[in-house]
Amino acid sequence: MKIFLYLLGIDVKLALAEAKSVFETFSKKYKMIENKGQSMLFEAENPNLEMISKRLALTHNIHEFIGKCSIHNVERFLEELDIEIKMPFRVKVHYTEIKPEIETEELEKEYAGYFWRSAERRGIKPSVNLKNPVTSICFFIEKNTVYIGKKIFDIDKKQFIETEPVNRPFRRPITMGSRTARIMINFAKVKSGRILDPFCGTGAILIEAGSVGLEPYGIDIKEDLIEGTKKNLKYFNIKGYPRIGDSRDLKKIFPGDYFDAIVTDLPYGISASMGKIEQFILYQEAFLSIEKILKLDCLAVIAVPGEINLKTNMKLLGIYKEQLSTNLVRHIHVYRRVV
Length: 339
What we know:
The chain is α/β, with parallel strands linked by helices and 339 residues long. The protein folds into 2 domains: 2-154, VC0802-like, CATH 3.30.2130.30; 158-336, Vaccinia Virus protein VP39 (Rossmann fold, 3-Layer(aba) Sandwich), CATH 3.40.50.150. The chain is 29% helix and 32% strand. The chain has helices spanning 12-26, 49-55, 74-79, 104-121, 158-162, 178-187, 204-211, 223-235, 276-291; strands at 2-7, 29-36, 39-45, 59-70, 89-95, 135-142, 145-154, 194-197, 215-220, 241-244, 259-265, 294-304, 315-323, 329-336. The strands form 2 sheets. A 7-stranded mixed sheet has the order 2-3-1-4-7-6-5. Strands 10-9-8-11-12-14-13 form a 7-stranded mixed sheet, with helices on one face. Helix 1 (12-26) packs across helix 6 (178-187) and helix 6 (178-187) packs across helix 7. The longest helix has 18 residues, at 104-121. The two termini are 36 Å apart. The relative contact order is 0.11. Residues 271-275 have low confidence and may be disordered.
């Protein structure tokens, strides 16, 4: 099955990496066929598209891929089209990179006309419903190429707005956003099971982990943060297990091989009195502690505020960057426990 994704333009590289991780998690087999701008084309075997749609954070929508053609041959392509389309239908046009030469509404009317006549020629009685269509046909224009898809799922963007820091009852000035937390969880490629954030802060990662059906555990050394995390989890009706503890000695709290994934944003700017050496030591000790409680072959997704070189027995699979501000970049490291 060929699947077309329309990615958010916030950070296309990060969106692409997230989509690959989610398809790998919820498909028997997949391969990426093409990627241009916000357009992404997959071929996937037995993809669980419902679960994929519930996980993705940086995608607008998911489509069954119908085909592609030159922007000058759309009418001819639709004339030769032979697929089952349930009525009523709607047409939507998206320009993925370039500034439109023709207004989208004007082009939607033109393409809808082509589609209408194509349906009539095939003996189908066409009808249109712009608000509640049974079938939504989408045209994605990438320079001189048009990608055509039948929409399967829209990604629910409200879920991320509802759990943004500003909407949490307990928060701090520097708090991870809901989309970033979801992206990091998706990089862990875990379908179910226990997930730990050993620097849970106000609980952003725990909230997102619980919202997708994982069993979230959190550790923080500060009592006020743990109490605040509990308050946030209760507010969003998520069952989780935050507790006070030292991330440098996690095996005192949990048995070995206990977690299916570890996802965390290492603290930075911890205090004005903490120098770079002390912060580096904290990171190093936390890394060595994390290895001992993560199951073999499972992933640890660890964000840090820059380039670091820490000693670890885990295998580094990749590093993804998220621009937080002009001078600050979050580096998301993905590791696999191999021994």
